Amino acid sequence: MTSTALSVPTAADVTAGQELPTLTFRISRAQLVKYCGASGDFNVIHWNQRHALSVGLPDVIAHGLCTMGTSGRVVTDWIRDPTRVIEYGVRFSSPVPVADDDTGTEITVGAVVAEFDQSTGLARIEITARMGETDVMTRAYAIVQLA
Amino acid sequence: MSKSEATFNALPFESSPSNYYRTASECVIRVDFRQVFGDNSCVPLNQSLVGREYPAPTKYDVSRETIRRFAVAIGDSNPLYHDPEVARAAGHPDVVAPPTFLTVLTHRFHNDGPVEDPELGLDYSVVVHGEQRYTHHRPIVAGDVLSAVQVIDEIRVAGRNELMGFTTHVTDADGKPVAEMYVSMISRGTAPQEAS
Questions:
Q1: Cβ pair A134, A80 in contact under 8 A
Q2: If B142 and its partner were Cys, which of A39, A89, B64, B152 is the partner (CB 3.0–4.6 Å)?
């Protein structure tokens, strides 16, 4: 695979312990609606506040996979070619409530190169995703193939 | 475990948002009021179903527009998702799918998979999403025609909950492996309880 049109990071650009640029984004009600349509997950807890409150949730909550998918940009924005992400895994640790406002819920995503194998060009990247002080995903990681 | 602690743990949620998160490893997204009101009629999951396979009844056609729609939903303007020319210049046959795109197959074939198998006995109203993992063997691109088989990997007790893990094996039109997607569901409070 060649990626001449993109400046994909090469093995020479990477060292273990290297931090990737932090990603901050806001999940809004509008995004949840889009994610319902795009993913096919129309569970009412993701769009119906009346229902969410009736089952004891603090508000409508984001799809875990909406958070996971959006957070993955911390890696793909860096590696440019998303098909170099060989593996991506997370555990969901806290729901993300999304209020009916114009700002949405802010998520801050950090990533660090935890391991890098020079011979194969494979890097293991550990990811954190926080809503304020709360981890919304744990044990999140991606394995990427560098150019 | 004290009686009050046991009672506390039997509740599927705390009503106050301030103590909504019981532990870091649990995420409440559904609540079963039968548990709230003490009807402890939950039945353990049928562990004999480990290994059962659920082939999707139809193929899944990956298109530029389904990829574009998914990329927009995760707020991602990466040109490899949106522009076939850029994708080709980067060595791909067409626009490529984001790493979590295969989620669409989960929902497309939800009704044909283990979650809705009446023999499993999973009450979806007490289920929370535990873990998600994608393993890719090759890029997914517009024009791919994918087949999917969901397989139950494990069913086990985890404290007072049960865990059901299943993998969706995705292959292309030639039958070659494209990706696997592992999902674990946590069935809250359905584990057999020891008599006190």
A1: no
A2: B64
> B22 phi and psi, to 5 degrees?
-75, -50
Residue A92: is it exposed, middle or buried by C-beta count within 10 angstroms (0-12/13-18/19+)? buried
Query: What ipTM describes this predicted complex?
Result: 0.94
Query: In this structure, what DSSP letter does residue A133 have?
Result: T
Query: pLDDT tens for residues A50-99?
Result: 988 988 889 999 999 999 999 999 999 999 999 999 999 999 999 999 99
Does B64 contact chain A (CB < 8 Å)? no
For the stretch A110-141, pLDDT in tens is: 999 999 999 999 999 999 999 999 999 999 99
Asked if A136 contacts A69 with a C-beta cutoff of 8 angstroms, the reply is: no
For residues B59 and B29, the answer to whether their CB atoms sit within 8 Å is no
Nearest Cα residue to B27 out of A45, A30, A99, A104:
A45
Of A32, A13, A5, A3, nearest in space to A123 by CA: A13
DSSP string, B155-193: EEEETTEEEEEEEEEEE-TTS-EEEEEEEEEEETT-SPP
Task: Please say whether the beta carbons of B173 and B25 come within 8 A.
Answer: no
Residue A111 · residue A134 · CB < 8 Å = no
How many Å lie between the alpha carbon of B129 and the closest alpha carbon of chain A?
7
Q: Which residues of B touch A81 (CB under 8 A)?
A: 80, 90, 96
Distance of residue B19 Cα from the nearest chain A Cα, in angstroms: 11
- State pTM to two decimals: 0.85
Q: How far apart are CA A116 and CA A8, in angstroms?
A: 16
